[in-house]
Design a protein that fits this description.
With 52 residues, this protein is mainly alpha-helical. Helices cover 40% and strands 0% of the residues.
Length: 52
Amino acid sequence: MFNGAGDLIVVFDIDSDQPDAFTAEDAAQLAVILRGVFSGMDEQNLIGEKIL
């Protein structure tokens, strides 16, 4: 996930033991969730909360 300045602030990695388990639609829906979770947070806030 990137902040407003275009800096990478969060990497969310999911895996499956099944080939092609996730679709582009899965990725799009996860992006919506992550934007909701991390909206309004910047890198300094994430470090301060020990998320990074």
